[in-house]
Amino acid sequence: MTRPTDRLLFGAAYYPEYAPDRSIDLDLDLMAEAGFSVIRVGESVWSTWEPRDGEFDLKWLSPVLDGAATRGIDVVLGTPTYAIPPWLRRSHPELAVETATGQPVPYGGRQDVDYSHPVFRSYAERLVRAILTEHAQHSAVVGFQVDNEPGYRLIHNDGAFEAFVAGLRATYGSVERLNEAWGLTYWSHRLSDWGDLWRPDGNTTPAYDLAWRRFQAGLTTDFIGWQTRIVREYASPRQFVTSCLAVGRAGVHPALVARPLDVVGVNIYFPMQDALRRPQSAEASQWGKPFWAAAHGVWSVFRQLDVSRAIRPEPFLVTETHATSIGESHVNYPPFAGQLRQVAWTMIGRGARMIEYWQWHTLDSGHETYWGGILGHSRTPGRVYAEVAAIGRELAQAAPELGGLRPDADVALVHSLDSKWALEFAPPLPLSDGSGEGDPSSYDRIFDAYYRALFDDRWQIDVVFDEDLPDVPAAVLRWPVLVLPAVYVADDAQLSWYAEYAAAGGHLVLGFHPGYLDREARARTELGPGPLRAAAGVSFAEFSTIAGTVPIRSDALPTPELAAALGWADAFDLEGADALAWYDHPHLGRWPAITTHGHGSGRVTCVGTMPDQGVGAALARWLAGDRLVSDVWGWLPASVTVSSARTPQGRVWFCNNWDWHEVRVTVPFTSIDLLSGDALAAGSPLVLGAWGTRVLVEHIPTPDVRPVKEKGQ
After folding, report:
1. pTM, two decimal places
2. Whether residue 627 has pLDDT greater than 80
3. Please, which residues bridge with residue 407 across strands?
4. What is the DSSP letter of 273?
5. How far is CA 691 from CA 21, 92, 325, in A?
6. What is the model's pLDDT at position 705?
7. What is the Cα–Cα distance from 441 to 424, expressed in whole angstroms?
8. Cα–Cα separations (whole angstroms), residue 692 to 345, 346, 399, 638
9. Rounded distance between C-alpha atoms, residue 681 and residue 672, angstroms
10. Who's near 548: CB < 8 A, 6+ residues apart?
């Protein structure tokens, strides 16, 4: 099979069915002029494909496929299973997904169906097979997208719960074993029969909740795998299968759901305008931020891309990103000139092999009327179309130099979905509104605190899911530093792996409360950090929530005056480790906040709190030494980012100025500007205009290798 990542694809989602009075030929001509090589079609309109039960209209897409083929534009054909038609909901109300027992989602939105239900599966299969029989072998179709953003809701329907109980019976064998594993003696929850298991709505047992979240992710993995198998019956060796993942959905484990796919597809959205300015002010960063975008800023764009690459550590597809405003009538912040280009090249630099905008034209009706397309409601090409077309020309020009690209990394951050789910159920951090409630986004806040600190110190970052860690020697070779921001749930074998990593020469950084729970979400009974105690050289039996902030003092770290601990404090007792920083507090001050300990050939550093930006910056600089890839550049303005990637031909550097003011930096190596063709000598000035991007190919001299003389010559 031709790998979908063998080419660099550029295009948009295209929905001519939403604008039947629009000329398809005119649209496709404009796409071709903009350098489009791909469009995505068909995934949102079950009621168009099947307007009534068993009555199919399959020919409406043919003019799009034929026109795309004529212009050399490839097509990704989507399966429309994430939004069901009214006739199906009316005839089978039992298919409505329940967000709590007996509480169905009212009709009128999307992703409102129980996709584990056999009746839904039968209707979905019938439709998918009809579409693929008609269109799968069209010459324009290069791939298939199964469903769209799966895992949006947790499914509480009867059938899902019964399957959950059946899975527990298969895993544990008896209620006695489940009672022991989950600690159900507490509050008289011991089961005498499998029929005793209560519904998840009122559950207060951590082990139950973690098992329920794993089960829900399994439902989504099964659904995508089931649909992928159907599609493969029709796909030829030249065609790929992907899905369209929104990382962070409640009912999906991205690394698991992606395994049956040929390539990972992800949706990347972010606030623009001043939210992309560096350095970022707290006030400006809120503008252009829809309610669902928890993180914002240049660092968050990189973080989304690095997490996307972690789903399967290889190039990925950006199946959706936005060309203008994102989503709400009161959030209309189209990009400043240059920002689309910056983000497109950032995506390529961090491993994307396809960029598809959502969408070609802004919709005239429906919930997403304010979600801007490349063309507006008038369908008239304007500024955004011109900028997208310029990006298309650049990517087509540069594509031959970007094959086999692999982003560089100085460090890996370990992502643990078990820990994320457990910390949603029992958050360690309070909400900042003074309500006294726990913050269910605690895991993301902790993870992002480390990611942003390292990013701001110009580290290049890999993210790796904890179940995808390689063997220890490979990990040490690839990542000299491994950071565990919040590995709260882990079994003994995982924790032993981390200790072995440090012993083999890696620098392991532990966030607070590492391995506090075992795989069943039971608190370990030994002193923290449990199996990591000897490697860390510390123990703790006590911990405290921090109300507000607590200053941090240190003679070993370059901590700024305002550095502080946030949210939490582990009370470390030193058992061979050295203290790097202390809490500056009349009670907590008896304990160190950050420690470090040599272990084997490596080191373990423990951070007993959530670092603020000051502590994070000091820790990142202390960890770095002189090992950062970007350090070869020396001083850089605060508005500038540089990132690099390797190709078989050498190293490519992606340089961006995230600000209105032109800046100049010094190029530290001989290079070629990939887009202009200009040669740059080492020491040359590099001009980056307002919101400017430059892509440089570093010239790596060929070693002077002389032939070895044979004896007697």
Report:
1. 0.95
2. no
3. 645
4. G
5. 37, 52, 18
6. 39
7. 6
8. 11, 12, 20, 14
9. 9
10. none
Tokens of 685: 């000035």
Dihedral angle at the C-alpha atoms of 352, 268, 10, 146, nearest 10 degrees?
Answer: 90
- Look up the CATH number of domain 633-698: 2.60.40.1180
Alpha-carbon span 141 to 492, nearest angstrom: 47
pLDDT of residue 22: 82
Kindly give the residue spans of alpha helices, DSSP state H, lying in 275-382: 298-311, 339-349
Inform me whether the pLDDT recorded for 173 exceeds 90: yes
Is-contact 636 644, C-beta < 8 A? no
Contact 79, 113 (CB under 8 A): no
Quick: pLDDT tens for 60-96.
Answer: 999 999 999 999 999 999 999 999 999 999 999 999 9
pLDDT tens-digit series, residues 403-415: 999 999 999 999 9
pLDDT class of 21 with cuts at 50, 70, 90: confident
- Judge if the upstream peptide bond of residue 359 is cis by omega within 30 degrees of 0: yes
- Interhelix angle 417-425/442-456, rounded to 10 degrees, is 130
| Per-residue pLDDT at 292 exceeds 70 | no
Stronger pLDDT, 433 or 151, i.e. the higher one: 151
Pick from 23, 127, 39, 31: which is nearest to 82 by CA? 127
Structural contact between residues 620 and 631, judged by C-beta atoms closer than 8 angstroms: no
What is the C-alpha to C-alpha distance for residues 169 and 163, in angstroms, rounded to an integer? 10
Cα–Cα distances in angstroms (integers) from residue 88 to residues 43, 151, 220, in the given order: 17, 21, 21
Closest CA to 406 of 306, 534, 530: 306
| CATH class of the domain defined by 411-627 | alpha beta
Residue 331 is encoded by which pair of tokens? 């959030």
Distances (CA, A) of 281 to 217, 470, 636: 37, 39, 19
Nearest to residue 277, comparing CAs of 336, 331, 228, 349?
336
The half-sphere exposure of 632 on its side-chain side, counting CA atoms within 13 A, is 14
Instruction: Strands of 45-165 (E only): list them.
Output: 74-78, 98-100, 103-104, 141-145
Q: How far is CA 130 from CA 60, 124, 340, in A?
A: 13, 10, 38
* Confidence band for 370, pLDDT divided at 50, 70 and 90: confident
List CB contacts of 252: < 8 A, sequence separation 6 or more.
Answer: 150, 151, 217, 220, 221, 245
Cα distance between residue 326 and residue 53, in whole Å: 34
User: Helices 206-232 and 175-182 meet at what angle, rounded to 10?
Assistant: 110
pLDDT tier at 282, thresholds 50, 70, 90: low
Helix (H) or strand (E) segment spanning residue 231: helix 206-232
At 479, is the pLDDT very low, low, confident or very high (cuts 50, 70, 90)?
very high
Tell me which residue has tokens 């090249």: 345
Any idea where the domains of the chain sit in the sequence? 411-627, 633-698
> Can you give the pLDDT at residue 283?
60
Residue 350 CB partners (closer than 8 Å, separation 6+) = 302, 305, 306, 309, 407, 643, 645
As a whole number of angstroms, the distance between CA 381 and CA 361 comes to 10
Question: Given the DSSP bridges, would you call strands 316-321 and 352-357 parallel, antiparallel or unpaired?
Answer: parallel
CA distance 230 to 79: 11
Structure tokens at 166: 């059946």
Question: Over the stretch 569-603, which tens digit does the pLDDT of each residue have?
Answer: 999 999 999 999 999 999 999 999 999 999 999 99
The radius of gyration of the chain from alpha carbons, rounded to an integer in Å, stands at 27
The pLDDT tens digits for 248-268 are 999 999 999 999 999 999 999
